[in-house]
Amino acid sequence: MTVANMITILRFILVPAVVYWMLNGQWQMAFAGFLVAGISDGVDGFVARHFDQRSELGAYLDPMADKLLLVSVFVVLGLVGEMPLWLVVLAVSRDALIVCAVLLSTVMRNPVEMKPLMVSKANTAVQIILASIILAELAFSMEFGPARPILIVVSGLLTVASAAAYLVAWLRHMGDDGEGKTSGG
User: Fold this and answer.
1) CB 3.0–4.6 Å: which of 30, 138, 155, 179 could bond 22 by disulfide?
2) DSSP β-bridge partners for residue 182
3) Is residue 184 part of a domain?
4) Is 106 domain-assigned?
5) Residue 76: domain span
6) Is the predicted pLDDT of residue 181 greater than 60, yes or no?
7) Average pLDDT over residues 62-70
8) 3-state secondary structure 7-66
């Protein structure tokens, strides 16, 4: 197992700890755990690229660890009333849609490689910033002015745009008969 993969596994281990701290109102610990996970994501990417430790396992584990942490943080923030439930449902539904699409295409023997789209990267960045701001506000009794409500709206819009973009790409892939033509017509 590579060092990069071990760092990624650390992020998986941090998820239940961050959730536990959040549920117990230990916001400084939750913020610190979220921050460590974010830093470790950058470190494992750096190690993988610069020390030739890229692996197929890492290519799957890295985004899974990121999503597990972010979705868990969103769900708990929604449960404790710090994030609107509509945004939590939207974000979780988008991720479930993508997972189901990939699984269905695999079961149908038409596997699709879902590469991150620019709108998806922007969505993830905004979600991370939003979660960070909320955790920082709770951990340090600070306020970022209108940042939270603005990021909530932007996150909602990007989540919808990202889901739509992935759905269109998936539908095109599934309709392709392998010769550049769409089936059924």
Assistant:
1) 30
2) 176
3) no
4) yes
5) 3-175
6) no
7) 92
8) HHHHHHHHHHHHHHHHHCCCHHHHHHHHHHHHHHHHHHHHHHHHCCCCCHHHHHHHHHHH
What number is the average pLDDT over the span 7-16?
94
CATH of the domain at 148: 1.20.120.1760
Long-range pairs of 11-18 with CB within 8 A, sequence gap ≥ 24: 11/37, 11/40, 11/41, 11/44, 11/65, 11/66, 11/69, 12/61, 12/64, 12/65, 12/68, 14/40, 14/69, 15/65, 15/68, 15/69, 15/72, 18/69, 18/72, 18/73
Residue 179, pLDDT above cutoff 70: no
Q: Structurally, how many domains does the chain consist of?
A: 1
Each residue's pLDDT tens digit, 14-36: 999 999 999 999 999 999 999 99
The pLDDT, as a whole number, for residue 177 is 54
